[in-house]
Amino acid sequence: MSKPSEAKAVAQEIVRVIPQVMRTIAAERHGAGYTMPPAHFRLLGILASHSCNLSELALRQAVSLPTMSNSISVLVERGWVKRVPSPDDRRQVLLELTPDGRAVLIDMKNRSEARVAELLGALSPDELAHLSAGLAVLEQAFASVMYHGPKALAQDKIKRAGKER
Among 115, 33, 110, which Cα is nearest to 78's? Predict the structure, then answer.
């Protein structure tokens, strides 16, 4: 088990470095003409895997229903998302990625990956291997964390407090 001071030092590095990576990706998207906020890109990614209703998306993204409704309206206007009636409940509306939305998502992902790969190309094979191993550890550390809004966050804090006793 690591010392709290070691964990804090690594946390500080992550909090410092991840925004730099995300700014680089955002700049690449902006340069390609995709001027949408990162949250909209995440929504496209979620909808690429499965249809959701507005409430599910708001909960998953930890935003209010009006905020999510505004975001979805923008994506619908761009033709990247469509509203369809739920096959299970006619009162519900599901949100689905359109073929244009999927194409945009794939293009943005490819451009972002290409830019990051270009920057990582300066690293040695050993450095790349270390980075890959570190990212696997980071992913594993965060795999159990799924933010589902303030209630889930409060329950998570209670669980963590119980483990510390």
Answer: 33
DSSP class per residue in 29-93: HHHTT----HHHHHHHHHHHH--B-HHHHHHHHT--HHHHHHHHHHHHHTTSEEEEE-SS-TT-E
Read off the pLDDT of residues 65-85 as tens digits, 9 standing for 90 and up: 999 999 999 999 999 999 999
Fold of 4-122: Arc Repressor Mutant, subunit A (1.10.10)
Q: pLDDT-derived band of residue 149, with 50, 70 and 90 as boundaries?
A: very low
The residues spanned by each domain of the chain are 4-122, 124-165
- What tokens were used for 1? 């088990």
